[in-house]
Amino acid sequence: MEYNTYVCKRDGNSLPEIDFDFEKKIFCMKGSSSVSDPEEFYKKLETIIRENGEKLKNNSVNVICEFDYINTGSTKCIYNLIKRFCEISQKVLIEWNHAEEDEDTMECGMFIEEELLSEYKNFSMQMIKMAW
């Protein structure tokens, strides 16, 4: 299905809020991601990105992640989403926001960056400590 904008409001404390704007090339994910079956949730988002990938080719995209909690299963799924952006887009700018004292979320971002570096050169990642 083709989207200009895809929004998924936060559902309780286990799912993040998603705001994908294919026109502006800005993709935000924020909140907590502690869903028990993250593959089911994130697979839908991967499909949306793949189906709308034509809008992203030869463009720069901004991926903004602002998580206050991510479980292990979600980390891999978020990596797969960002990887999909790297496969489709010319350049991917990632802004990884985390609470100043939240080392776990910071380390998730560092893990994603290290994994991407082994495969892709068309991205840059900025780690930002937030005082929430």
Secondary-structure blueprint of this entry?
Blueprint: E1 5-8, E2 17-21, E3 26-33, H1 38-51, E4 60-70, H2 72-88, E5 91-99, H3 103-117, E6 123-130
Parallel strand pairs: 3-4, 4-5, 5-6
Antiparallel strand pairs: 1-2, 2-3
Helix pairs in contact: 1-2, 2-3
Number of domains: 1
- Please give the CATH class: Alpha Beta
Strand neighbour order, sheet with most strands: 1-2-3-4-5-6
Quote the beta fraction. 25-35%
Question: How many angstroms does the end-to-end distance come to?
Answer: 36 Å
Largest sheet data: 6 strands, mixed
Q: Oligomeric state of the chains?
A: single chain
Overall shape: globular
Radius of gyration: 14 Å
Order of helices and strands: EEEHEHEHE
Helix content: 25-40%
Number of strands: 6
Structural class: alpha/beta
Give the uncertain stretches in residue-range form.
Answer: none
Number of helices: 3
CATH topology: Transcription Regulator spoIIAA
CATH architecture call: 2-Layer Sandwich
Mean pLDDT: 91
Description:
With 132 residues, this protein is of the alpha/beta class. The protein has one domain: Transcription Regulator spoIIAA (2-Layer Sandwich), CATH 3.30.750. It contains 3 helices and 6 strands. It has a 6-stranded mixed β-sheet, covered by helices on one side.
Give structural attributes:
alpha/beta, Transcription Regulator spoIIAA, 6 strands, 34% strand
